[in-house]
Design brief:
Porin; 348 residues; mainly beta
Length: 348
């Protein structure tokens, strides 16, 4: 067996088995969540890792444990602008990604039953040469030395490919626009928050191969995954914790590449200054990757991302979120450099 954590596998399989049973029974065992309470909490920042490699696979969107009350729904339009610059070569792999990307995701969620929420995510992707290269290099120089690859790059060029033994396995074209992979989601409440214990929910997701694999809009295969969500309120603060596993399809069998299940967690904090305005901070950590032993950080290395954002509710039904995400610790050659996001939502 590959050197993955036996304890982690055991934990996920047990929790997933319990979760599936609870999901089948959802809708009859839990009291109705308060609609006012749900609206006052913005929840974690609903932005996944925007690396052109990682978006090919199912990524669980950071979420709260609270479910939408029965008969209520939420529509979000999440837009992320991302700059990526990595270039590495190993014995069998060669990759260069120098691009910017705008990824917009329409996310719909609905409280079907008390304690059971269903959802749908429909992304669209635009690859282009970019406009932020010079700005990013100036910022890196301001706070320290910029990466050598930044200093030597051709500003605002477009290159996007990953090869194995001269066979291209991932590529994108400049100024290409297309639909990504659609994701179907379900979330079920396990128990409500108590005086000490946090609220707990389980979730499942299924990614459908609707994106064009030849343009790096999707993997061309079905992925599925499961996860646990925790939430605890203390005065004006809400703490969020997600832990998830994804089982990718065999997207690169023709290149002799076997993909592994991969694990991730999210830790988030929200502070509410008023019922309408809050600030959010979170860390998204992709613990393992679907690729293994390629010799490229872009494919193998774990990813740490720090996200900061603000949330403001306009009137009773509309809210907006804005902020940014930055790779931290040892993730600079494993993922996107920087992401800015702007989300707008409507509750009903």
């Amino acid at each position: 067996m590959a050197p993955r954590s036996y304890c982690m596998r055991f934990f996920f399989w047990v929790s997933c088995s319990i979760g599936i049973f609870i999901l089948l029974c959802a809708g009859t065992a839990f009291p109705e969540d308060s609609w006012e309470r749900w609206q006052e909490r913005a929840g974690p920042i609903p932005v996944v890792n925007q690396s052109p490699v990682q978006i090919l696979f199912l990524q669980h969107v950071p979420d709260r444990a609270d479910t939408l009350p029965q008969g209520h729904g939420c529509i979000r339009l999440n837009t992320a602008l991302t700059n990526t610059l990595v270039s590495r070569e190993s014995e069998h792999y060669d990759a260069t990604i120098d691009t910017e990307m705008v990824r917009t995701s329409l996310q719909l969620s609905y409280g079907l039953l008390s304690g059971l929420e269903l959802g749908l995510s429909v992304p669209a992707i635009h690859y282009y040469s970019g406009v932020m290269d010079g700005f990013i290099e100036d910022v890196e120089n301001l706070f320290g030395d910029s990466r050598n690859i930044r200093e030597n790059q051709d500003t605002n060029r477009f290159v996007c490919f990953v090869k194995k033994d001269d066979k291209t396995i991932i590529s994108a074209s400049e100024n290409s626009i297309g639909m990504g992979d659609v994701v179907l989601k379900a979330k079920a409440k396990v128990w409500d928050e108590g005086k000490v214990i946090p609220a707990l929910s389980i979730r499942s997701a299924l990614k459908l191969p609707t994106g064009d694999k030849d343009q790096a809009f999707g993997s061309g295969e079905i992925d599925w995954g499961l996860g646990l969500l925790l939430q605890k309120d203390i005065s004006k603060m809400s703490f969020y914790f997600n832990v998830d596993v994804t089982f990718p399809g065999d997207a690169f069998d023709d290149a002799g590449i076997s993909l592994n299940e991969f694990y991730a967690y999210m830790i988030g904090l929200e502070y509410r200054f008023t019922p309408r305005f809050s600030v959010l901070a979170q860390m998204n950590h992709t613990i393992t990757r679907p690729f293994e032993d390629t010799g490229l950080d872009l494919l193998d290395r774990r990813i740490h991302e720090l996200l900061l954002g603000i949330n403001y509710r306009v009137g009773e039904k509309v809210f907006i979120q804005a902020g940014g995400a930055e790779d931290i610790i040892d993730s600079c050659d494993a993922t996107a450099d920087i992401t800015f996001f702007f989300n707008i939502g409507l509750t009903f």
